[in-house]
Design brief:
Helix content: 10-25%
Radius of gyration: 19 Å
Structural class: alpha/beta
Number of helices: 7
Number of domains: 1
Shape: globular
CATH class: Mainly Beta
Largest sheet: 5 strands, mixed
CATH topology: Protocatechuate 3,4-Dioxygenase, subunit A
């Protein structure tokens, strides 16, 4: 199935999209997103640029990202590309044409951002109880992707430290870990409920920054390639490197990638073995709602680590949150010491139900953490 780009066919679009996420009505997510974005006073971080620069945050962003890029290249034995290399097209609304020789100051100084809302559903495949860790790859094959997230309060224009950024996305062939459902890979494989790959949480530093090591996400039916992001406020870190399963305060959003980047990635294994139909950015209804609001730019900026896309990517984006608002979390499943448990009250992770409380009869309330080590949040 592929979404129709016509606004006139919107009703058919919404009815068809539900098949991609059994038990999750994407129309509710679109409705909540539209209502929230229509009510907020600030929809981007453009108004914060001068203040962030004056406080030195912009300069520290440049240095942090440049250092991280250099470290990532050194780890993989890659040298900085020269002028004759293939253009590394970073996302930019005005198409500035960044090249491999673009200085770090220019490359990393922008504030492409999207607004994380307290009112939007967290999507159909959210799992509570995941590990605090920087590297979330585990055994998943794909193109290495280092991600730099920055959380900014849209009201004060200040970075938001000491909050937990959670991210999750599907693997190269469009499957999410931790969930057994029609439409999410082989639904007869009940062992997937115990998988934790491509899910993780990191605490923001004094500049509101959290970083992860992952792979580039694949695609699945009716949705463009994307990553889910959630910010938890006032959460408590347990000794087992988790936030447990009773986290309630959150801001939720999704971030996307340029279509030409997705096209280049999809030519490589194992992405090219994905048999699900690819939905392009122009046909994704959630992305349409995001970009319809002035100033909201929910795309990662990025640069290649080496000469080839297969060498990996470094991507970054800033998220604006209203720190005075929050919403409860309703996971589709919970992860415990004993393994994963589906949440019968979740509606597959959508709104409604009885909230995010763990199901009765499940011991512990928090996962094991024995296989995870506390990850550094240093930038």
């Amino acid at each position: 199935m592929r979404f129709n780009t016509s606004i006139v066919s919107g009703l058919a679009l919404l009815a068809g999209s539900a098949a991609a996420h059994p038990g999750h009505d994407i129309s509710e997510e679109i409705k909540e997103r539209r209502e929230f974005l229509g009510s907020v006073k600030r929809t981007s971080l453009s108004h914060c640029a001068a203040q962030l620069k004056a406080r030195g945050v912009a300069d520290r962003n440049v240095q942090r990202r440049a250092d991280m890029l250099q470290k990532a290249r050194a780890k993989r034995g890659l040298k900085k590309r020269d002028l004759s290399s293939v253009l590394a097209t970073s996302h930019n609304a005005t198409d500035l044409g960044y090249t491999p020789s673009t200085s770090a100051t220019t490359l990393f100084s922008g504030y492409n951002s999207c607004l994380l809302t307290p009112d939007v559903t967290q999507g159909p495949y959210y799992v509570g109880g995941e590990y605090i860790r920087e590297n979330i790859i585990e055994d998943q094959a794909g193109i290495d992707t280092i991600l730099d997230y920055q959380v900014i309060d849209v009201n004060t224009c200040e970075p938001v430290p000491e909050v937990y950024v959670e991210m999750w996305h599907c693997n190269a062939t469009g499957v999410y870990s931790g969930i057994v459902a029609n439409g999410n890979g082989d639904s007869s494989d009940e062992t997937n409920i115990n998988n934790t790959w491509l899910r993780g949480i990191q605490k923001t530093d004094s500049d509101g920054v959290a970083q992860f090591e992952s792979i580039f996400p694949g695609h699945y039916v009716s949705r463009a390639t994307h990553i889910h992001i959630m910010v938890h406020q006032n959460a408590v870190l347990f000794d087992n490197s988790t936030l447990g399963n009773n986290v309630s305060a959150s801001h939720v959003g999704q971030a996307f990638f340029d279509q030409d980047l997705i096209t280049a990635v999809e030519l490589n294994a194992p992405y090219n073995t994905n048999t699900q139909e690819l939905t392009v950015n122009a046909d994704d209804s959630i992305l349409s709602e995001e970009t319809a609001t002035e100033g909201v730019d929910p795309f990662f900026e990025y640069t290649l680590l080496g000469e080839s896309i297969t060498d990996g990517l470094f991507a970054w984006v800033a998220f604006g949150i209203n720190a005075t608002e929050s919403q409860s979390v309703t996971p589709a499943a919970f992860y415990y010491k004993e393994g994963g448990v589906a949440n019968s009250n979740s509606g597959a992770g959508g709104p409604g139900g009885s909230g995010g409380a763990p199901p009765s009869g499940v011991p512990g309330g928090i996962p094991s953490g024995t296989s995870a080590q506390p990850a550094s949040t240093s930038a």
